[in-house]
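From the shared-data thread, chain only:
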Amino acid sequence: QVRLVESGGGLVQPGGSLRLSCAAPGIRLDDYTIGWFRQAPGKEREGVSSLSGVDSSAYYADSVKGRFTTGRDNAWNTVYLQMNTLKMEDTGVYSCHGFFGLRHTWGKGTQVTVSS
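Structure, as tokens:
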């Protein structure tokens, strides 16, 4: 079974930046669509971004458009989520997702806390 492992979360002040990475040991990610999701306390999980495995086109939720960027670092076999101009409402557990061999696969998530 494919494993997805997120890293890069932490505590940051409003207006700051964080860069999250999604890694998949044992499998190449460059042919797969990888999405980022987040879940804030007391709220349902919501989609943040998606990066196509076909043409590398990217989708962003309106709430993060212009502030977040997702892309591939094929040399390191990772998909990143660069988060700039962070707001308190960006706080949550961020998870990456992919569909591998007919299986939906989620990472365990990494905590992002935006607080002054």
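The radius of gyration is 13 Å.
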